[in-house]
Design brief:
By secondary structure, the chain is mostly helical. It has two domains: about 70 residues, Orthogonal Bundle (Arc Repressor Mutant, subunit A); about 45 residues, no CATH class. The protein is built from seven helices and three strands, in the order H-H-E-H-H-E-E-H-H-H. Strands 1-3-2 form a three-stranded antiparallel beta sheet. A hairpin with a 2-residue loop joins strand 2 and strand 3. The chain is rod-shaped.
Amino acid sequence: MDVFSALADPIRRDLLLRLAAGPARVVDLAAGHAVSRPAISKHLRVLSDAGLVRGTDDGRERRYTLDPGPLAEVRDLLGALAARRAPVSAGHLDGLDTEVRRAARDRRWGTSAAGTAPTPGTTTTKERIA
């Protein structure tokens, strides 16, 4: 199973957060959830198959620890997404807004963007009103 599929389940994400604090037994991990211990074991198996956790035998108990190595793939994807800039920034939109307002004002007053009079044969708003 790949890391992204393993992280898709909220219970598995919570288990990883818990294991980030230190090793834990299945019974300890199950105590914080409304699911059974066998269900937690299945989630841990999925996380283990993805390489995110390791289980070690400690007497009759099995302790699980977080292995953050495979999370590098997730970090890389998130970094690449964060590095991408929006194609249009807020500054570009502000500039566009200014130009639209200027063009609307020029149309109302019958001047061009350069501040010159309209071309011959056209009427301005002022002329139509008079």
